[in-house]
């Protein structure tokens, strides 16, 4: 299943608070709060898709093409992760379907820096009607005094069998 931001997207760590980007099928929603591995989309735009049948996520691959930004903390790592909500819920929780993209990003950020990762993962079960989000965010949060912002384009794919 492919995902692409379709336009520039933003991932941020502002004083220890993570703001994620939800990636859809040629679109994105930026600046979504990520708190304790949870995203609540009640009253917000959604990039979630509904799972059509029972299955298992077995692989994930993702890339982020950095175009600009600021890294006050010295170095940041971008993570791509699938978040899951059961039928009838707008609260999404991070799953083990994730990859940390390499290399880490430092300043100065070269235009066009491509970070990437791919992994076969232990199966993550999904049920017909569940909703899934592809989320990109800064996973490394070294402190609460830095402001890190990365602007770029995101794409990813998962395998559901």
Q: Would you write up a description of this structure?
A:
β3 and β4 (28-34) form a beta hairpin. This protein has strands at 2-4, 9-14, 17-23, 28-34, 38-40, 49-50, 55-71, 78-85, 91-100, 113-126, 131-138, 147-160. The chain is an all-beta fold and 161 residues long. The chain contains no helices and 12 strands. It has one domain: Jelly Rolls. The model has no long low-confidence stretch (mean pLDDT 93). The termini are close together.
The second-level CATH architecture is: Sandwich
Question: What's the count of strands?
Answer: 12
What is the rounded distance between the termini?
11 Å
Instruction: State the order of secondary-structure elements, H for helix, E for strand.
Output: EEEEEEEEEEEE
Mean pLDDT: 93
Structural class: mainly beta
- Globally, the shape reads globular
CATH level-3 fold name: Jelly Rolls
Radius of gyration: 15 Å
The first-level CATH class is given as: Mainly Beta
Oligomeric state of the chains? single chain
Low-confidence stretches: none
What's the number of domains?
1
Helical amount among residues, as a percent range?
under 10%
**Number of discrete helical segments:** 0
Strand fraction equals over 45%
Task: Characterize the main sheet.
Answer: 12 strands, antiparallel
Protein name: Exosporium glycoprotein BclB-related protein
Organism: Lysinibacillus pakistanensis
InterPro entries: Exosporium_BclB (IPR021210)
């Amino acid at each position: 299943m492919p995902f692409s931001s379709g336009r520039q997207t933003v991932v941020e760590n502002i004083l220890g608070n993570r703001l994620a980007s939800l990636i859809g099928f040629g679109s994105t929603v930026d600046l979504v709060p990520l708190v304790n591995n949870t995203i609540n989309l009640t009253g917000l735009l959604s990039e979630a898709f509904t799972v059509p049948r029972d299955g298992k996520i077995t692989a994930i691959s993702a890339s982020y093409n950095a175009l600009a930004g600021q890294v006050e903390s010295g170095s940041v790592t971008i993570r791509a992760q699938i978040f899951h909500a059961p039928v009838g819920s707008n609260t999404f929780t991070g799953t083990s379907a994730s990859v940390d993209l390499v290399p880490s990003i430092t300043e100065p950020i070269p235009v066009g820096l491509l970070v990437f990762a791919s992994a076969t993962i232990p199966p993550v079960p999904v049920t017909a009607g569940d909703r899934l989000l592809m989320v990109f965010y800064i996973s490394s949060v070294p402190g609460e005094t830095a402001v890190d912002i990365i602007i770029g384009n995101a794409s990813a794919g998962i395998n559901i069998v």
